[in-house]
Specification:
The chain has about 190 residues and is an alpha+beta fold. It is built from 4 helices and 10 strands. It starts with a strand and ends in a 9-residue tail after the last strand.
Amino acid sequence: MPLIECTLIEGYDAPTRRLVCERITDAACSAIGASPEFVIVTVKEVAPENYMRGRSQKKPAAAPKQPDQIVRAFLAAMEKRALDEAAGWLADDAKLIFPGGLSFSHPDQLVAWAKTRYQSVSKTIESMETAFEGESASVFCFGTLQGTWLNGESFTDIRFIDRFAIRGGKITEQQVWNDLAENKHQP
């Protein structure tokens, strides 16, 4: 039963401290095979005046937006066609890779291509899972698609899974897989 103590500078809010504890628990579970109920994580807070690094006192930085929040914000912007807002979540060299190996670097390109396939599309997200490696994260988002084909017919319950690579608070890559081509009602 591991007992892991984490020391933070005072000033992080309760949700951030909880997230730190959850992530430490997950790391312990994956590294040593412990069940979550046997991992004990404690947070000790130190007053800023009692914390020094590099010969200077520090204040806590604001917690960054979490990778799943970045993905949700990007997808919401895409769905409402706020393309500049969506582009703001992308790294300068981002790649958006869709079925068939089609690759786009900007939401404008993606929407232009999509207009040749359907009038509208939206996602119902069933789950998001995030994996971390150093300063990078992968977010797997899956659920179903619904929308309207070019001929006005609607479609629903089309499976999808997206994998997003996140680094520095930006999406560097989106890979998309879905069953749109398998839909029997496609015109």
